[in-house]
Amino acid sequence: AVRSRPGRVWRWRNLLVSFAHSVLAGLWALFSLWHSPELLSDIQDGYSVSGHLLVCFSSGYFIHDTLDIIFNHQSRSSWEYLVHHAMAISAFVSLIVTGRFLVAAVLLLLVEVSNIFLTVRMLLKMSNVPSPALYEANKYINLVMYFAFRLAPQAYLTWYFLRHVEVQGQGAFLTANLLLLDAMILMYFSRLLRSDFFPSLRKGSAGRDVDGEKFLID
What we know:
single chain; mainly alpha; 72% helix; TLCD; TLC-dom; transmembrane helix
């Protein structure tokens, strides 16, 4: 099913790499917080070697994925992903250099647990799996994981930064990044709801060629 559409081959391979990163980074973030729960009491200056290495690892993935998109001439169809990666790379590099807010990055990387099921969703759609039950099961698990590991950590960090972090220097930069990420996450959540739970509300997707798109379109 993938090879029948040339534009999907790159996307399939790219999503498999994304899936591998989501499994590794998601489980790593859970382990880091489980192993050092005291980090949650100091989001600004808490530090662990595991968390630091996790941020370095994910930064490497974002850089790799950015180059993969550009070198395979997918920038136009995946421009939203490039914006997201630019935000993530710049924020993570500032954390790696300063050693501050690493705990916030680990909390944000809990989103990769949700991305496991979101990526599985897209792979199932691309491969035309003949078992609708598998897609249906993943659809509801994906929704639960979206709330638990994407919306909840994001909402908590946004509240924390707006209430406790000084809006200057690195704090202002990271707060602005968080607010932009909030808007992106809510936009993708609305797409997910329209596509999987309220298909009658979908607009403009009929007949659209989305083979190169990385983000949730349909």
